[in-house]
Amino acid sequence: MAVMVIAQFFIGVTMIAALSYYPLLLAIHRPLGIAILVFAIVRLANRLTRRLPPFLTTMGPLERRIASYSEYLLYALLLVQPLIGWAMLSAAQSPVVLVGALHLPAIAPHNLTLYAVLRTAHTVAAYLLFATFTAHICAVMFHTVALRDGIIRRMSLWPSKNNG
Predict the structure, then answer these.
(1) Mean pLDDT of all residues belonging to the chain
(2) Does residue 109 surpass a pLDDT of 90?
(3) Quick check: 140 and 51 in contact, CB under 8 A?
(4) Distance in angstroms (rounded) separating the CA atoms of residues 152 and 164
(5) What's the rounded Cα separation, in Å, for the pair 30 and 12?
(6) SS3 per-residue string spanning the chain
(7) How far is CA 135 from CA 50, 132, 161, in A?
């Protein structure tokens, strides 16, 4: 999922900066956004139905609180960002084409003012998601490389019983 989020951000930035590639990149960006939404829902369902392993002993109380809040923010952004994009396209009466003739229904009324607001929200949320995601990756790298405390096992979708 991390690779999809990173790719999505760079595709989004590139499609605005390199207009000659806009149609191709948009054809990738839309279904990839929906794939991220689906994966985020699966991850959230897993998170809500499974007991979390305990925090690592290398993490103090403040670090644990920050980790929890950043996780909540990541889930919120991973869910909201694709929905904003979908609503934005709906407001512009532009279909979200998944593949071929398969497209998603509109989730917002056709309204160009709404489109403009959602476009700004989509951009702001993208940068916020990227910043949060980058901070999260940096923390994971610190734990993995410097502390070597096994945090990757704790973060996996289906953690083993001996995590932590």
Answers:
(1) 90
(2) yes
(3) no
(4) 10
(5) 10
(6) CHHHHHHHHHHHHHHHHCHHHHHHHHHHHHHHHHHHHHHHHHHHHHHHHCCCCCCCCCCCHHHHHHHHHHHHHHHHHHHHHHHHHHHHHHHCCCCEEEECCEEECCCCCCCHHHHHHHHHHHHHHHHHHHHHHHHHHHHHHHHHHHHCCCHHHHHCCCCCCCCC
(7) 25, 5, 27
How, if at all, do strands 96-99 and 102-104 pair? antiparallel
pLDDT at 163: 45
Q: Which two tokens stand for residue 61?
A: 């109380």
Which pLDDT does position 164 carry in this prediction? 44
Alpha-carbon distance of 75 to 37, in angstroms, equals: 10
Inter-residue contact 81 to 49 (CB < 8 Å): no
Q: How far apart are CA 151 and CA 163, in angstroms?
A: 8
Residue 139 CA to residue 133 CA, distance in Å, equals 10
Is the predicted pLDDT of residue 121 greater than 80, yes or no?
Answer: yes
pLDDT, residue 162, reads 52
The model's pLDDT over 11-67, given as tens digits with 9 standing for 90+, comes to 999 998 998 999 999 999 999 999 999 999 999 998 899 887 788 888 899 999 998
Closest CA to 81 of 122, 41, 32: 122
